[in-house]
Amino acid sequence: MGRVTGRRPVIRVNGSEQTRRPDTLVAEEPLEIRVNGDPFAVTMRTPGDDVDLVHGFLLSEGVITAPTQVAGARYCLGTGPDGQNTYNVMDVVLAAGVAPPTPDITRNVYTTSSCGICGKASIDAVRTQSSFRVDEDPLRIGVDVLAKLPDRLRAAQRVFDRTGGLHAAALAGPDGELQIVREDVGRHNAVDKVFGAALKADAVPAKSQVLMVSGRASFELVQKAVMAGVPLLAAVSAPSTLAVDLAAEAGMTLVGFLRGETMNLYAGAERIEI
């Protein structure tokens, strides 16, 4: 798995027995995102699919909406103690005519792996205006199709099987077939990687698609889905109050506690065929 995982010693306790052995853990490293050479954000992520990550992050921040707006993305020189490139700094060059991010003193550029908007100073600051309408999306999907998504997502989690420490996100069509799957130590990073891959494939807005996530449905994930033009977000766990409010405001369908044939419909229930 390369830099995606690492080995650390562990003492395994089982009753009165103790066993020393190496354990496989998911990697977590910082990624500094630069735009046109200027520092923009730092996120804690699992290395891998970094180009997808930065594309998705810039999409969710409202900087870009199409793959043609990016002229290039490359790792910058950043050396570790061994003198080798850390591959933890990536510079995105915007295409000619694309406005760079507006400096915002209310934004802290450091983002942890657990929260994608912790640096925002207020709720109003994260209600980014999307370029896409999701309320007019004609998607209709049956509960039988939704019921299969959690197991399909879990089956696609290759690194989770080895570490047990990763979130996953996927885009699925109305037939329930997974189109793009990504994993990351941060739930928001997994979603950004999915949307970045979709953007690079010129599949944004993600019309009539379902975003399936392995954890809870937070405000930030609903916001990212709206920014990518996704009409339905489904999560295996609970949503937050702000997530429900934003989904309803945007005309998105929000499904929580999706576990087998049981699920809660928090917004946009008209898209679900029972």
What's the total helix number? 7
Query: C-alpha Rg, in Å?
Result: 19 Å
- Could you give the order of the helices and strands? EEEEHEEEHEHHEEHEHEHEEE
Mean pLDDT: 88
Give the spatial strand order of the biggest sheet: 10-9-11-12-13-14
Name the helicity range.
10-25%
Structure report:
The structure is a single chain. This protein has helices spanning 50-60, 123-126, 143-155, 160-163, 187-200, 219-227, 241-250; strands at residues 5-14, 17-26, 29-35, 38-45, 70-75, 89-94, 110-111, 141-142, 167-172, 178-184, 210-213, 232-235, 253-259, 262-267, 272-273. With 274 residues, it is α/β, with parallel strands linked by helices. The chain starts with a strand and ends with a strand.
Name a few traits of the molecule.
15 strands, 274 residues, alpha/beta, five-stranded mixed beta sheet, six-stranded mixed beta sheet
In short:
The chain is an alpha/beta fold and 274 residues long. The chain has helices at residues 50-60, 123-126, 143-155, 160-163, 187-200, 219-227, 241-250; strands at residues 5-14, 17-26, 29-35, 38-45, 70-75, 89-94, 110-111, 141-142, 167-172, 178-184, 210-213, 232-235, 253-259, 262-267, 272-273.
Describe the secondary-structure layout.
Blueprint: E1 5-14, E2 17-26, E3 29-35, E4 38-45, H1 50-60, E5 70-75, E6 89-94, E7 110-111, H2 123-126, E8 141-142, H3 143-155, H4 160-163, E9 167-172, E10 178-184, H5 187-200, E11 210-213, H6 219-227, E12 232-235, H7 241-250, E13 253-259, E14 262-267, E15 272-273
Parallel strand pairs: 3-6, 4-7, 8-15, 11-12, 12-13
Antiparallel strand pairs: 1-2, 3-4, 5-6, 9-10, 9-11, 13-14
